[in-house]
Amino acid sequence: MATEGRLAGKRAIVTGAAQGFGLGIAERFAAEGARVAMLDIQEGAVKAAAEGVPGAVAIGCDVADAGSVRSAVARAEAEMGGIDVVVNNAGWSHRNQPVLETSEEDFDKVFDVNVKSIFHFVRECVPRWREAGGGAMLNIGSTAGIRPRPGLTWYNATKGAVNLVSRSLAVELAPDKIRVNCLAPVAGETPLLATFMGEDTPEKRAAFQATVPLGRLSTPADVAAASVFLCSDEAAFFTGVVLEVDGGRTI
Fold first, then answer.
1. Is residue 1's pLDDT more than 50?
2. Which run of H or E residues covers position 180?
3. Which percentage of the chain shows pLDDT scores above 70?
4. pTM
5. Cα-based angle 241, 230, 77 (whole degrees, multiple of 5)
6. Phi/psi of residue 32, each to 5°?
């Protein structure tokens, strides 16, 4: 006898969904019964990616721009008939380099994409969820916000903000039955890996993997599995959680 998926009936927005963790989350959400709006600044790429995700809606969106987010949320709501879940996955990093080499432009961009984006989605979605009687937000932070490493100071700072913002939102929005959680993955098999490490070489990978007790990088499947749980009704009593998906890296 077939059983319903763990996200059956949920309507979810996933940002940064053209590739990497975001695509993995969108694919798994759809497999678990959710209707997914896949958002990405790379509109052509997210449209192509959505072709492989049953029932998905592809929407171009610059998560750092309030007007773009407003338009994307309104379209997702219209296409899906509502929004139950938002996964703020879109992210960016400056190159791994000495702190004085990061430009002001890169500083602004990393905070706009990684932190201000959450501000925009909170402003758009919280009023809707208050009216609907609840909702769930999942923010993708990083182990960089828990155990920061040299060379990524400003990126580390954004992920520390994501981790703390998630906990603060959880406390403030709990009376509205709005749950807010966070994942803190270790570096993974995504297009940002070379940026995190400075360059992607077998030697650099081996050195980094040696610092992870379980001996490997994270994968989109790892992050998607944790995302399904925290966005499902199984996690109805989970809010303010910063879940480390890191193979033991932060121990």
1. no
2. strand 178-185
3. 95
4. 0.95
5. 115
6. -95, 10
Ordered structural domains, the chain, with CATH: 11-238 (3.40.50.720)
Contacts of 169 (CB under 8 A, 6+ apart): 122, 137, 178, 180
Whether 155 is catalytic is: yes
Marked catalytic residue, from 21, 129, 155, 208: 155
**Tens digits of per-residue pLDDT, 177-233?**
999 999 999 988 776 666 666 667 888 888 889 999 999 999 999 999 999 999 999
Pairs from 190-193 (Cβ < 8 Å, separation ≥ 24): 190/19, 190/20, 190/21, 190/220, 191/19, 191/20, 192/20, 192/91, 192/92, 192/93, 193/217
Tell me the torsion sign for CA atoms 41, 43, 44, 48.
positive
What pLDDT, on a 0 to 100 scale, did the predictor assign at position 4? 83
Nearest to 140 by CA among 25, 53, 50: 25
Residue whose token pair is 């990093």: 93
b/e per residue 187-212 (b: at least 16 CB within 10 A): bbbbebbebbbeeeeeebbeebeeeb
Looking at the chain, how many residues does it have?
A: 251
Separation of alpha carbons 120 and 117, rounded Å = 5
Secondary structure of residue 93 in the 3-state scheme: coil
The values of phi and psi at residue 166, to 5°, are: -60, -45
Q: Would you state the structure tokens that stand for residue 202, as one six-digit string?
A: 């077998």
